Amino acid sequence: MAFVLAASPSLRFTGGFVAGSRLPGDFLRYKISKPSLCCPSSPASFARKCCLSASMLVPFRRDDAREPPPPDLASSLYKNRIVYLGMPLVPSVTELILAEFLYLQSEDAVQPINLYINSAGAAKVGEKLPSVTEAFAIYDVMRFVKPPIFTLCVGNAWGEAALLLAAGTKGHRAALPSSRIMIRRHAAQCQEEDTDSVRKIVRDTNFELICLYSFHTGEPPWKISEDIRRPKYLTPHEAVEYGIIDKVLYNEREPKER
C-alpha cells in the first residue's frame, strides 16, 4: 500500500518535488525528495511553500502498485456531469462552459447537467460595451441544449451569474443555506462623447436583462426594473420568494433553523 501525491501536469512545483514517470491519462506522479525534508531557512518561507504545495496536490491511496491513479478533480466532476462556474465571466471561462455543455449533450441528451455556480458575474463593471454578453452566450446555450440543467448556488451568484441560476430547469434551481444572490442591471458608464449606438446597446442590454428575469421569476417587468436600479441582495429564502430559485438545500443531518 502506498500513498501518492498526484496533480495535473499543467501545475508547477518549485522545490521539494521531483517528477516521476509518465502514467496513463497524461498525468504525472510526484514524490517527496529528501531535500524537502531539510529545515527551512525561515518559518515564514516554510509556511509559504507549504501553502502553495497543499493547494496544488491531490492525495490518494493506492492498495495496488498496478492500480492507475485517479483523475484530477475537474475530470471527476465532469464525469458526473457537473459543470462548475467558479470564476468571473470572461471569454475564456465562457468558452469552457459552452464546450462542456455541448460535449455533455453529445454524450447523453437525456441525463441532466448540473451547473454549480459561485461567481461574481461579469469581470469588469463599468465598461462601455456590455460584458454581460458573456452571460447571454451561456444562457442561450443553456436554453439550446436538450438535457435539463439543474442549477445550484454554492457560494455567490451575483449579477449575471444570478441570471444563469434562474435559467435552470424549473423545480431544480437551488441554493445552499449560506449562499448569497444579487441581481443588478449592467452598470455601463456612458460619457458625453459616446455615440448614440453605444448608448442604445446599453439600453437594449438592460431591457433584455429585465425581460429574462421577468420570464424566469414571474415578476412583472416594472418591478424587476425598479429592483435592479441598485444591487439587490437576497438570502436563499428571499430568492425562493422572488422566483430566482425553487428551493434551499439542507444537509439531512442539519436542522432547518436558518
UniProtKB/TrEMBL annotation:
Top-rank taxon: Eukaryota
GO molecular function: ATP-dependent peptidase activity; ATPase binding; serine-type endopeptidase activity
Pfam assignment, any one: CLP_protease
Record-level GO BP terms: protein quality control for misfolded or incompletely synthesized proteins
PANTHER family linked to this entry: ATP-DEPENDENT CLP PROTEASE PROTEOLYTIC SUBUNIT (PTHR10381), ATP-DEPENDENT CLP PROTEASE PROTEOLYTIC SUBUNIT-RELATED PROTEIN 4, CHLOROPLASTIC (PTHR10381:SF47)
Similarity field: Belongs to the peptidase S14 family.
Protein name: ATP-dependent Clp protease proteolytic subunit
Species per Swiss-Prot/TrEMBL record: Musa acuminata subsp. malaccensis (Wild banana)
